[in-house]
Design a protein that fits this description.
The structure is a single chain. By secondary structure, this protein is α/β, with parallel strands linked by helices. The protein folds into two domains: about 300 residues, Aminopeptidase (3-Layer(aba) Sandwich); about 200 residues, 2-Layer Sandwich (Alpha-Beta Plaits). Helix content is about 40%, strand content about 15%. It is built from 16 helices and 19 strands. It has an eight-stranded mixed β-sheet with strand order 1-2-5-3-6-17-7-16, sandwiched between helices. Strands 8, 9, 12, 13, 14 and 15 form a six-stranded mixed β-sheet that branches. Strands 4-19-18 form a three-stranded antiparallel β-sheet, sandwiched between helices. The relative contact order is 0.17. One of its GO terms (molecular function) is hydrolase activity. This is M20/M25/M40 family metallo-hydrolase.
């Protein structure tokens, strides 16, 4: 059966887009309450109020909420349960400039955009009438809207399901994923309370064409993983009039970026697909204001996508590249100094710098060996108190402060060095290859659903093996070995005080994941827009058919 759902999903989408729900604002709470209201008005949830929850996110200063609902089928006695998921928050609207008041107005925004001369493609898409514009339209309120429609539909057709569906509309995906992490607790609780057997998760996050000529629309199994390898570089400060008496950490960081950024040697390959190479997300020193002294320390960190590589694999590769970069920087400095000595008729003596590279684990263990338990106790208490005093401190900044404390207070050797660590939320990779029965069932069901809906689609629908962006789906399953999580832990200065990866909760769910999501163009941009026919009609039908096949 093919559902005629276009107008219903469009109406829900427009309602949600008109609610500004920028991450880390009260708008997230407002949007969650609107979704909760939608479900509360359904007859099924009036009769089964225990199956609907407005869950406050744990330890959240913003007072944000997830909306979690469950429909239990009556076709049979199966406890098999499918998780539908999507995030209700959006990125900010700074890119709209003076037109930010229209960012959440899909009715008026197209005319505003037409007046900005944004190019032929945008103007053509506006005139086509095929797209809905607005912040969050693509990423990803239209995906939530499709799930809301399906939950309503199945609540009125319980006899179609031999099993159950849980829908999660979570906050904070664009931030630190605290929404889905909190939702894991409800999934665990309901699993025990209702004797549920989780068999699959369907995310509805967005995708776009790969280039201007790409006519395909995509469904993705699994999810790319993400790490943030980070580098704390300590040099030797000097006055600018004595340039060769110091070692500029900015030079070393620049060499790190040259050797890591867009280096295709770090592309991860699996099943015919390839990740993007790393790219720099920050590069700076720690000087405050202008002085005539070079910087003492600097930092950089890089986005690193994975299909097969573990945290241990990545930090090993980063250490090799850090050693190479340090060597290159020292070689450059000495060659420069030698040329300067010739120009100045001075005798050249090689500068006495040495390459020193540690992982955080190695640096921490070295100091612990020297100073014993008092070092471990001090560092734990320092990090704990730092988090208590400044709970909103950015995770990356927090890590820098912890490393600097260890360096300045406990390290006797202050000669230049690089310390490599992880400083951000970990997104574990998810592979769905057919290695077990649950994966085979999901692969078969989705492919059959795509084949069925293809007849109703204007463009080809293709399946790929990895969703190419990190998402909240990364917290529903894990393909990483537990031992590799320990490697992550040992190389995160924030672990245990400001950050912990909820691996135990994830493994309680641990189901194969597919992204049957929204499709459009320019996610996170001024011209964000969702393709209505595919997203409001084809996507809910692929999801619907997949659910029917899994819970037949």
């Amino acid at each position: 059966m093919y559902l005629q759902c276009f107008e219903d999903v469009k109406e829900i989408t427009e309602c949600l887009v008109k609610i500004p729900s920028i991450v880390n604002t009260d708008g997230e709470k407002n949007c969650a309450k609107e979704i909760y209201k939608y479900y509360s008005n359904l007859t099924y949830f009036k009769e089964n109020p225990d199956y609907l929850l407005l869950q406050e996110i744990k330890d959240d200063e913003m007072e944000r909420y997830n909306v979690i609902s469950m429909v239990k089928g009556t076709k049979g006695n199966s406890n098999k349960t499918i998780i539908l998921m999507g995030h209700l928050d959006t990125v900010g609207v700074e890119d709209f400039g003076s037109f930010r008041d229209y960012a959440f107005d899909p009715d008026k925004l197209p005319e505003i955009l037409k007046s900005l001369n944004l190019g032929h493609e945008v103007d053509t898409d506006i005139l086509s009438g095929e797209y809905l514009f607005g912040r969050g339209a693509l990423d990803m309120k239209s995906g939530i809207a499709g799930h809301m429609y399906l939950m309503k539909y199945f609540s009125e057709h319980l006899d179609e399901l031999d099993g159950n569906i849980i829908s999660i509309s979570e906050a904070d995906e664009e931030g630190n994923s605290n929404g889905i992490i909190s939702a894991l607790e409800v999934l665990k609780e309901w699993k025990e309370k209702y004797n549920l057997e989780y068999i699959a998760a369907i995310n509805a996050d967005y995708s776009t064409p790969y280039d201007g000529k790409d006519e395909n629309q995509y469904v993705y199994f699994g999810n790319v993983g993400k790490l943030l390898p980070s580098f704390h570089v300590v040099g030797k400060g000097t006055q600018v009039g004595q340039a060769y008496e110091g070692l500029d950490p900015n030079l070393i960081v620049a060499e790190l970026t040259r050797n890591i950024e867009l280096n295709t040697d770090f592309c991860d390959e699996m099943m015919g697909e390839v990740t993007l190479p790393p790219i720099s997300l920050k590069q700076s020193d720690f000087k405050e204001g202008y002085t005539a002294q070079t910087a003492i320390a600097a930092q950089s960190y890089y986005n690193f996508f994975t299909f097969t590589m573990s945290p241990g694999d990545v930090i090993k590769k980063m250490k090799e590249k850090a050693i190479e970069s340090f060597d290159n920087a020292l070689d450059y400095v000495n060659k420069s100094y030698e040329k300067y000595c010739k120009l100045s008729n001075m005798d050249f003596t090689k500068l006495n710098w040495e390459t020193r590279v540690y992982t955080w684990e190695e640096f921490y263990n070295e100091l612990a060996t020297i100073h014993g338990e008092k070092f471990k106790i001090y560092m734990h208490n320092f990090a704990k108190e730092l988090n208590e005093l400044f709970p909103s401190l950015d995770l990356r900044e927090f890590s820098t402060i912890v490393i600097n404390e260890a360096w300045t207070k406990w390290s006797d050797d202050k000669s230049p060095a690089i310390i490599i660590y992880y400083s951000s939320q970990f997104y574990g990779r998810i592979t769905v290859t057919g290695k077990n029965e649950l994966e085979r069932q999901l692969l078969d069901s989705v492919r059959e659903a795509v084949e069925f809906v293809q007849d109703y689609s204007d463009k080809p629908i293709k399946t790929k093996m990895f969703y190419p962006y990190v998402s909240d789906a990364n917290f529903i399953a894990s393909s990483d070995d537990i031992g590799e999580i320990k490697t992550l832990k040992k190389n995160m200065p924030a672990w245990g005080t400001k950050y912990t990866y909820p691996i135990d909760d994830i493994l309680e769910i641990n189901v194969p994941v597919v992204n049957i999501g929204t499709f459009g163009k320019d996610g996170h941009k001024l011209t964000e827009r969702v393709h209505m026919k595919y997203t409001f009609e084809n996507v809910p039908n692929i999801t619907y058919t997949t659910i029917r096949k899994l819970l037949k």
